[in-house]
Amino acid sequence: MTQKKLHPSVLKFKEFVKNNPKIIKEVRDGKATWQELYEDWYLLGEEDQRWETIGTEKATEPETSNESKGDWMSNIMGMVKKMDPNQMQNHINNLSQALGAIQGVISQFQGGNAAAGSIKPPEGPKNPFGFRKD
User: What InterPro entries is this protein classified in (predicted)?
Assistant: First the structure.
C-alpha cells in the first residue's frame, strides 16, 4: 500500500492523541471534531489547560434520569428546527423513487405482468364446462 506522507505537525498531533486517549473519546462522543482539536492543539500547544479538562466535565456532574430525558427531547427538537423542508422533501422523493425501483425489480422476478400494478387471477379454461354442441 502506498501511504501519503503526512505533515510533521500532523504526525506530532497523532502522537499527542495516542498519549491522551480522552481526546479520542471526546470525538467519538461528538463533543468535538478532529479538525477543531487539531487547530486547538496547533494554536495552544500541548501544555494548555484545555487538554487537562477534556473528559472530566461529565465525571463531575452526575446526570439524573429527568435531565437525560429533557436533554434527549431538546436534542430532538433542535434537530427538527434545523431541518430544511425542501431538503427533506427531496430526500423523501428520492426514497420513494428507490422503493418504486425495488418494487419493479421484485415484480419482474415474481413473474411478469405484476409490474403494471394489477394482479390478475389465474386464468382457467374460458368455458368451464366441456360440453359440445351436437
Answer: YlbD_coat (IPR025953)
Helix axes 8-19, 34-44, angle to 10 degrees: 100
- Is the dihedral angle over the CA atoms 68, 73, 76, 77 positive or is it negative? negative
Among residues 29, 40, 28, the alpha carbon closest in space to that of 16 is found at 40
**Residue located via cell numbers 463533543:** 31
Instruction: Calculate the alpha carbon distances from 102 to 12, 24, 91, 106 in Å.
Output: 49, 40, 16, 6
Question: In whole angstroms, what is the distance from residue 97 CA to residue 99 CA?
Answer: 5
What cell does 1 get? Answer: 500500500
Rounded alpha-carbon distances, angstroms, from residue 7 to 3, 12, 44, 55, 76: 12, 9, 18, 28, 39
- 83 SS3 class: coil
